[in-house]
UniProtKB/TrEMBL annotation, chains A, B:
Subcellular location field: Cell membrane; Endomembrane system
Subunit structure: Homodimer.
Stretches that traverse the bilayer: 6-29, 62-79, 91-113, 134-161, 167-185, 238-256, 262-284, 296-319, 339-360, 381-414, 420-442, 487-505, 535-559, 607-625, 631-650, 699-719, 725-745
Keywords: Cell membrane, Hydrogen ion transport, Ion transport, Magnesium, Membrane, Translocase, Transmembrane, Transmembrane helix, Transport
Entry's EC annotation: 7.1.3.1
UniProt-recorded name of the protein: K(+)-insensitive pyrophosphate-energized proton pump
Catalytic activity: diphosphate + H2O + H(+)(in) = 2 phosphate + 2 H(+)(out)
Length: 770, 770
């Protein structure tokens, strides 16, 4: 085990202390939120039903995912590694997964109590300010939790495993990413099945408002906001945080030895301090909108973050690379000043976060051009709304991807073209970007809470018109903040994945060196192509195509799962309206629990397919085609992933807010044909922005980490002269078969509902019933 | 100049003869079509109006594109090359562009006469069989024209330039691809602006049927079928043909010397013979559907094609690589049998065409699961129709991309991992795929003609119900064949682009060798990264991201252009209904010409932006980041391009046929809510499948060929120690600025229509008017 100096250990100890302070702040903020007025008994009853549904879903989801986690825990022991690292990595995997689950649970459990409190204050004087405060503070709890647990995990591993920490941390990041991906997919399917189902019958068919208590899917819809947009998102951001840290530590150690290992922890600890500051200073002043306050909080904490990180770097690093102990050979005579280089990279990350914040706000905000353009196309019907939203999504994806690409190029130039330094700096830019994560999480949590508060208010019927308008405004802010968080999350994914590429190449090189001359040097023909990163080699290009295809397939599966599950909800809600005529007159209460239960079952069943695809696609490509094409595969997933994720998130956000523009009285206002057109747009956008889009972020990381973990095994089975190609191809085929069977199984489920006879029967039954 | 043997020249002479025979067959088929009954005076009047509009559009389009072509002709002289090659390449560019335009014009000019003939026979006894025959034969003319002109061009260049032919042919392929891209985009915007505009006012607002003569946009809609789906498609397939041939000849010469140069011409000449056979044997028998006959024609010609190509290869090639004169050094001791290797590659190409044919038919046909599933989701409204169509599009894209990837892997294994041989074989697989191009073009042309025939019949009111049903059936077949052609075209794009990658790498290597030790060998830092193909290098990855982004931006621009242009048509058609109340009662004739004129102007204005983007994005990336990232860029465009193209084509095809399923009486039939939902889906799909999707195919090739052409210049400006980095960065910035300004200009056009006041004014005007 590589030992660390006492200074380093002291610093890491202090950082662990900062992490614990962050967690204490989270507890204090939580108390503040819970101290607020809890509203009328009717409101509490509704909020109680939502809380119950959310708890039940998460419990069942954790049970399902627990099984997955145990299997993966076992599989980790099959991969070649140093025994001590192997055990540490597997245990760290469990911690990563556990923390990811815990932060999701924490977020959800507070959000379901905050919603009723926001609803309760809405009609009171100064309700907008206080409501926004409660919602934002709840987000603050989650934000401080993310920062605290992430930092604590990383610092803990470093304290225990010292120099071996990077390899062990791979497990931590993998656990966090895997669990977050499942929570994003499962929660995303739940929330949108309920939302789409509720809207299709309620708004479109029966013409009753959103969150009307006569709609049987309305409680499920509100449960969904908490399990998807809140728990899933919190886990997702935790995972982003963990994976960026992991990548930075691995690359830091490779580039700058011990100081490179500690530096990312310092930058991230600065982020924890900044997050606390951001959460405390973000307050709505006077009549300004919630978004203005949030933006101010973000920009202030971004500037403070850069300053603090700069000071810390100036203190911690020497002025020449040669003076850094354990610096890598090719960096020793690098002409740059490591202090300035690191500060510039961190600053690029922070600026990137700011630009994405602005750009996403521009594309999805209710006051800016693109969303107003989408709203204006409602005059020519739903088709043009869908088309213009897709156009907005495409362009916003391109500009976001372009800006991320520009940031990477900037970092690369700062590194003077030294690839290893560049990779470390990309990871540090990710750390810089994440210094603002506390505020970001708080912003995001704002969305589901204000959405829920609106639901509680509408269902209880106890909030007056002014109060309802307050909640509508908060909800519109929530739509934009949710889109912004997704943009930032995907930016971290690209930076982390780019950096992890370096770790991947390093793992491959190490594995090839172990084989020695007998393997790598004499490889030719097919084997040479299997280890070639050359993008002009046909099978590397095949890897790129397959990587992009995996992103498309994953997105399609997630969207299909929502369409299917929502269809089932539609039939159930229709059935309740038909069989219980008292519902419409308000005399009978719909069976909310049954819809919640259906959503729970469907989403847990549906999450397996995309999950298995993400885990097994890189295994099939890696063992089947080699480490070179697997690198191409990862490049394809990053390229297609960032574009698809932003496209899905922003088109969805634009549709949602275009609907709000029409509801504010434009183009005919509520109940007009234009309104109906925007409702269709919004419904199309639902699974885009809340199921498929956000799940791509953890997807990219899961596939990267799986590739990193299997790389040595792939090399061992493909390169040596006596390589076991039979076993290699067997593993590839088995992995491909598992992924394919999972996809076919989900198709079969679709087929079951949709054979021609079933459809005709369903129609006949419905016709007979009505 | 490398001389060719007399044997080779004789073979090429014979091939040129075959090309001329193919053209003669096209003339004969054309006479057969024109000999058919031309219908009633009313029908002829309508067809005349369509013809006039189509001619006017193409004339104006060619005038615009002529200016572009002349500018590019001049720019080609700025690029470094041997003077003789430079002149030849520029002239070949003009020929490629001219042939592309000619084939588009030829297809359109016959299609506008065939439509009325198909409409005229529909009500007659045996109308289905005869109508399908006329439509298919018209396609045959275009198919033979594509094959004849493509082969004639390639053979002609080889006869004149002998061994220098490959470099000169780059110009030929580039001209064909550039013109085809513009024709695809311009025609695609025209056709869908008219179609969407007509549907939105006609079907959705006024509730009148498609092609109702009271709709002012109906003539424009039919003109669009001819200029977009027919002329644009014909140019596109010609371009595919030309570029695959170019890639094969370049790589063939590199791998196998003279015989490698001639072999692709032989395989393609076999394709010409097979195409003639396919067109002649494809006849509808008894009561079978048009699709069955077309499929039979395809499969028969595919099998015959493989057999003939195999015989030709066995005769032409020796049994060992060593026996091939001028074989490349690393291939000389390759253990395989070149005959078998080549036959296997060609067979893989043909099989790939067959699989794509089947797969696309499965995903978009009216009788198979996916489209029926989309139709069934109409029971829950437009949103679920849109979502399920997107799901179908995503999965079909993944499977199509997966199969193309599998074909490349297969070829790679056959080549025993020898990269150069593999690249040549990929190109040969493309030639194999294109042996079926004659039948494919005929299949595709079927679509717009039957669509138009339906239009003529509806407008004239002179076709009885049975005849209308015949035309509806033919139109549904057309929807599927159109989707199939797009699948095949994109497969050729991937194969051609993969192969061109090899030419690209070769061009870079040659340029680096010319610089010698002073440059490449000593390059380090940033410059080393600029010439690195390593996918794990951050800026190569940036290239991949930017490549994918370009595809997304291009797609978004094309879709936005249609949304904008269609919006203008909607307001115009509404205005005519309002100001000329006699239209609705049939007493007044709408002003068809004005709508045609608007579509013409709008589409010609809108085509510039995507065109400039395609041409200048690779220039910006190449000069800005270097040849390595440019390779990453190309990989990104191929990966994202194939997925996006198939997604757009197949989701559009599925929506179109889902609408047909409902119109056939399912889920409530015509006029039901389900019908309205599928109309919305179909309208969303219109710009997907007929504007953005098909234009991606030439886009990929244009970007590849631009990169190939600029590669030596990029190397000269970036690698040598005294490289002019100022000029390099200046060129990159200028190219980026041109692309960006073009995009912003199109946004400004959007902005002009959509400022808040304009919208409010527009609404006020309309409200006052109605």
């Amino acid at each position: 085990m590589l030992e660390l100096s006492t200074t380093s250990l002291t610093i890491v100890g202090v950082i662990a202390g900062i992490a614990i302070v962050a967690l204490v702040i989270a507890v204090l903020l939580r108390r503040q939120v819970l101290a607020a007025d809890t509203g009328s008994p009717r409101m509490q009853e509704i909020a109680g039903a939502i809380e119950e549904g959310a708890q039940a879903f998460l419990r069942r989801q954790f049970r399902t995912l627990g099984i997955f986690a145990v299997i993966v825990f076992g599989l980790l022991f099959l991969l070649p590694a140093d025994p001590e690292v192997k055990i540490g990595r597997a245990i760290a995997f469990l911690f990563g997964a556990g923390f990811s689950a815990a932060i999701g649970y924490l977020g959800m459990s507070l959000a379901v109590r905050a919603n009723v409190r926001v609803a309760a204050v809405a009609s009171k004087p100064d309700g907008r300010r206080i409501g926004a405060g409660i919602a934002f503070r709840t987000g603050g709890v989650v934000g401080m939790g993310v920062v605290g647990l992430g930092l604590l995990g990383a610092a803990g591993v470093v304290l225990v495993y010292r120099g071996d920490a990077p390899a062990v941390l791979e497990g931590f990041g993998f656990g966090a990413a895997l669990l977050a991906m499942f929570m994003r997919v499962g929660g995303g399917i739940f929330t949108k099945a309920a939302d789409v189902g509720a809207d299709l019958v309620g708004k479109v068919e029966q013409g009753i408002p959103e969150d009307d208590p006569r709609n049987a899917a309305t409680i499920a819809d509100n449960v969904g906001d908490n399990v998807g947009d809140c728990a899933g998102m919190a886990a997702d951001l935790f995972e982003s945080y963990a994976v960026v840290l992991v990548a930075s530590l691995i690359l830091g150690r490779a580039a700058m030895g011990e100081q490179g290992l500690i530096l990312p922890l310092i930058v991230t600890a600065v982020g924890a301090v900044v997050a606390a500051l951001g959460v405390v200073i973000t307050k709505v002043r006077g009549s300004e909108s919630g978004l203005t306050a949030i933006n101010r909080g973000f920009y202030v904490s971004a500037v403070v973050g850069v300053l603090l990180a700069a000071i810390a770097t100036l203190v911690y690093l020497p002025t020449t690379f040669g003076a850094i102990q354990g610096v890598s050979e090719d960096l020793a005579d690098h002409p740059g000043n490591p202090q300035l280089v690191v500060i510039a990279a961190v600053a690029i990350g922070v600026v990137l976060a700011g630009v994405i914040l602005w750009l996403t706000g521009y594309y999805t905000g209710t006051t800016s051009g693109p969303t107003r353009h989408v709203a204006s196309t409602s005059r020519t019907g739903a088709a043009t709304v869908v088309l213009s939203g897709i156009g907005v999504g495409f362009s916003s994806a391109v500009y976001t991807a372009g800006i991320i690409a520009a940031a990477i190029c900037g970092v690369f130039l700062i590194a003077g073209g030294n690839v290893w330094l560049a990779l470390f700096l990309v990871a540090l830019a990710g750390c810089g970007l994440l210094t603002t994560v506390g505020v970001i999480v708080a912003m995001d949590t704002f969305g589901p809470i204000s959405d829920n508060a609106q639901g509680v208010a509408e269902m209880s019927g106890e909030v007056d018109e002014a109060g309802a308008q307050v909640l509508t405004d908060l909800d519109a802010v929530g739509n934009t903040t949710k889109a912004i968080t997704k943009g930032i999350a995907i930016a971290t994914a690209v930076l982390a994945a780019t950096a992890l590429f370096g770790s991947y190449a390093d793992a491959v090189t190490t594995a090839l060196e172990e084989i020695g001359d007998a393997g790598a040097a004499t490889a030719d023909g097919v084997v040479a192509a299997m280890v070639s990163y050359d993008i002009v080699s046909p099978i590397t290009l095949v890897g790129v195509i397959l990587g992009g295809a995996t992103v498309f397939l994953f997105s399609g599966l997630a969207i299909d799962a929502v369409t299917r599950a929502a269809g089932a909800i539609v039939f159930e809600v229709r059935r309740q309206f038909r069989e219980m005529p008292g519902i419409m007159t308000g005399k009978e209460r719909p069976d909310y629990a049954r819809v919640v239960d259906m959503c729970t079952k469907d989403s847990l069943r549906e999450l397996a397919t995309p999950g298995l695809l993400a885990a097994f696609a890189p295994i099939a490509v890696g063992f089947g085609l080699g480490v070179g094409p697997l690198a191409g595969f990862l490049a394809g997933t990053i390229g297609a992933g960032v574009l698809m994720a932003v496209f899905l998130a922003n088109s969805g956000g634009a549709w949602d807010n275009a609907k709000k523009i029409v509801e504010d009285g434009h183009y005919g206002g509520k109940g007009s044909e234009a309104h109906e057109a925007t409702i269709i747009g919004d419904t199309v956008g639902d699974p885009f922005k809340d199921t498929a889009g956000p799940a791509i972020n953890p997807l990219i990381k899961v596939m990267n980490l799986v590739s990193l973990l299997i790389a040595p095994a792939v090399v061992q089975l493909s390169v040596p002269a006596d390589a076991n190609h039979g076993l290699r191809i067997g593993i590839a085929l088995a992995a491909a078969a598992i992924a394919l069977l999972a996809v076919l199984a989900s198709r079969r489920r679709a087929g079951k509902v949709d054979t021609a006879e079933d459809i005709d029967n369903a129609i006949a039954t419905e016709a007979a019933g009505s």
